[in-house]
Design brief:
5 helices; 6-stranded antiparallel β-sheet; alpha+beta
Length: 127
């Protein structure tokens, strides 16, 4: 499993990448691997206000349906609509073209409280 050092991670298997005053959010390589082949994705509309730990959508694979949990609070600025027609992109490239949302955080301290790559790997090992 690959977990880029520059990202932050939630215990619900989402990642966060800071991009100036915005963050990009996706699911981790571990999450897509556990889900298997992803066949359907439900995402919120731009403009939605998320609270940390809110369910903001769902991902359906051949194995299961899983909720997508917001790792931070903020306003949804962009949604990766390309994934609706090509949800398999999440399996192929979860950290680049497989991003889900761009959010303007309401409290950047929530980002700092997320796991770093080493902490996320320890969390996975602890099971």
């Amino acid at each position: 499993m690959h977990h880029p050092e520059e990202l932050k991670y939630s215990r619900s298997h989402e990642w966060v990448r800071r991009e100036g005053d915005r963050v990009r959010i996706g699911i981790t390589d571990h999450a897509q691997s556990e889900l298997g082949d992803i066949v359907y994705l439900e995402l919120p509309e731009a403009g939605r206000i998320l609270q940390q730990e809110d369910v903001f959508g769902s991902v359906e694979s051949v194995k299961a349906v899983s909720d997508l949990i917001s790792p931070i609070s903020g306003a949804v600025l962009e949604v990766n609509d390309a994934l609706i027609d090509q949800p398999e992109t999440l399996n192929q490239d979860p950290y680049q073209s497989g991003w889900l949302l761009v959010v303007k955080p309401s409290d950047v301290r929530e980002i700092d409280a997320l796991l770093d790559a080493a902490g996320y790997e320890q969390f996975l090992e602890a099971g």
